[in-house]
Design the sequence.
């Protein structure tokens, strides 16, 4: 428990250090765009990571450590890429972050669908179909993300999308990330029942209530 | 000829047409049509030869929608008409059809049970992801065969946006259809112990 807390503090400190680096650059007179956006990105990432940590401490949603570490890794690499401008300087950085983010989103989608399937009586999804759903959720999120970037470029001229090749590589990485999680999820399904997963996450009560509400809605 | 026989006849007739168009697409090095054609043949042939019964009118509508882009493709190839807009539209319609009916197929023949909400959610994500996979297919076509099916990032994003909006629209239509027909749960046809043999 103590080592876990220390690890979380280190995770959050890493974001604050990156934000501090951005602000320090501002004090040296670097252009606004070079510090404000990266600093905000770091602070928002820290806030995003705080949410699952607090939920775990409170016992509301005890996400496994590997999952919180994956969230940290995806957010931190994004922040480093923005602060140090690796997105511009290192060709594969964008691919790496897209791959990890896609894995993360697919894993979240997988857990939600797996538990809904278990707790809602009227829904039954065979194990063989589950990897397909994981991939579909990951890819859809990737597409929506690209549409968001494109819209931001059109409306705010943010310059988030560079070229056709770049967008296609992003989508390809999203597909690979989702596919990887689909394969991992398939193995996971054979080693952990939904009941065990719900117990591990500490969401048995919440999902039981959700399942009851869902079934009642269907029977009306 | 009654309605179900006519439907079965139509679906049977579409198979050789699709087979021919897949061959043509291989000849033309059109990766998109090749993948789409093979998957469409599976989606149409499975209910005809393996499924004991079919979910009508969804299966016939899906077969027609899946074949439509191939009809446009055949016309385009034979007459070389400047139909860029229609070709693109028909491709997008094919993506909608594949996305939606892949799930209808999975539910009908692979021991699945979904309610309205979960079916609509899964059809939407399935359609959007199919759209993405097909765009990647088009792009690979560009890279491997030096073709130009996606000219720019803007075209790609317009297609993806249209796919997403269309996916939501089609899923909403499906939801409204189920509400109108009073269908709450959509389950495997085997589980429904359907006695109707149509093939």
Sequence:
């Amino acid at each position: 428990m103590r080592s876990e807390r220390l690890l979380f503090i280190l995770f959050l400190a890493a974001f604050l250090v990156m934000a501090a680096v951005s602000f320090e650059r501002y004090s040296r007179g670097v252009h606004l765009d070079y510090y404000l956006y990266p600093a905000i990105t770091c602070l928002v990432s820290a806030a995003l990571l705080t949410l699952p940590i607090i939920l775990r401490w409170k016992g509301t949603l005890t996400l496994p450590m590997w999952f919180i570490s994956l969230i940290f890794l995806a957010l931190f690499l994004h922040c480093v890429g923005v602060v140090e401008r690796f997105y511009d300087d290192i060709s594969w950085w964008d691919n790496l972050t897209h791959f990890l983010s896609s894995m993360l989103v697919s894993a979240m989608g997988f857990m939600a669908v797996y538990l809904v399937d278990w707790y809602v009586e009227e829904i039954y999804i065979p194990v063989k179909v589950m990897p397909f759903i994981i991939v579909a959720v990951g890819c859809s999120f990737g597409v929506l993300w690209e549409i968001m970037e494109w819209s931001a470029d059109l409306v705010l001229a943010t310059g988030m999308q560079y070229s056709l090749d770049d967008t296609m590589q992003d989508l390809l990485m999203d597909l690979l990330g989702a596919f990887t999680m689909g394969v991992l999820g398939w193995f996971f399904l054979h080693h952990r029942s939904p009941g065990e997963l719900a117990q591990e996450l500490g969401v048995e009560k919440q999902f039981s209530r959700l399942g009851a509400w869902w079934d009642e809605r269907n029977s009306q | 000829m009654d309605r179900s026989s006519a439907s079965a006849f139509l679906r049977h007739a579409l198979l050789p047409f699709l087979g021919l168009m897949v061959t043509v697409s291989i000849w033309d090095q059109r990766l998109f049509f090749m993948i789409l054609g093979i998957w469409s043949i599976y989606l149409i042939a499975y209910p005809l030869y393996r499924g004991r019964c079919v979910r009508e009118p969804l299966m016939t509508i899906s077969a027609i929608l899946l074949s439509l882009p191939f009809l446009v493709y055949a016309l385009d190839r034979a007459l070389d008409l400047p139909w860029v807009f229609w070709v693109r539209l028909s491709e997008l319609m094919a993506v909608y059809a594949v996305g939606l009916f892949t799930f209808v197929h999975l539910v009908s023949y692979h021991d699945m049970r979904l309610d309205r909400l979960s079916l609509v959610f899964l059809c939407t994500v399935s359609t959007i992801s199919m759209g993405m996979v097909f765009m990647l297919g088009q792009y690979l076509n560009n890279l491997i065969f030096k073709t130009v099916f996606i000219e720019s990032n803007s075209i790609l994003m317009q297609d993806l946006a249209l796919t997403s909006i269309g996916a939501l629209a089609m899923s909403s239509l499906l939801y409204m259809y189920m509400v109108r027909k009073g269908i709450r749960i959509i389950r495997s046809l085997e589980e429904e112990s359907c006695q109707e043999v149509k093939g």
